[in-house]
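Structure ticket #2291
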Amino acid sequence: MNDEHPDLDEMQAAYKAAVEEWIAKIRHEEELASVAHTAAEVDLWEQADMDEEDARDRVKAAKEAYEDALRKKLFGF
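Resolution: structure written out below.
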C-alpha cells in the first residue's frame, strides 16, 4: 500500500478483512461439522453455514468494488 491511492488502499484492506472474516466463518462451520450432532448442534451448524454464505457474499462484493476501482485507475473504464 502507498499514499498515492488511499481509496484503493482502503478497498484492498476491506477486501482482505472480508476474506479473513470468511475464513473464520468457514473454520467455525468446520468445527461444528466435526462433532456428534444433537438437534441444537445441527441448528448451530446450519446457522454457521448461513453465516459463511453471508461472509462469502461480502468478500465477492468487496473484491468486485476493488477490481472495478483498479480497472478505472489502470485502464480508465
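Closing remark: Residues 27 and 35 are 13 Å apart (CA to CA).
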